[in-house]
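User: Hey, my collaborator sent me this sequence without any context and asked if I could get a structure. I don't really work with proteins. Can you help?
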Amino acid sequence: MNEMFVTKAWAYAIGLIKVAGLEPTEDFKKYIELEKQGKATTEDLKRYLDKKYKAKGETNT
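Assistant: No problem. I've predicted the 3D structure and written it out in structure-token form, which is a compact way to encode the shape of the chain:
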């Protein structure tokens, strides 16, 4: 995917998160940077987050 598009899309997404009064976690920010560099995909991030939160006993909704 085009790096400029990915960068703009994540800037928009982070803006929405902050409007909700939240702050992205450090893990989330690391995956964003990996995706910007082409070293990870959004699907990789989803799998990571699913695994992390399922390990804590939360269900996937």
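In plain terms: The chain has a mean pLDDT of 84. You can pass these tokens on to your collaborator as they are.
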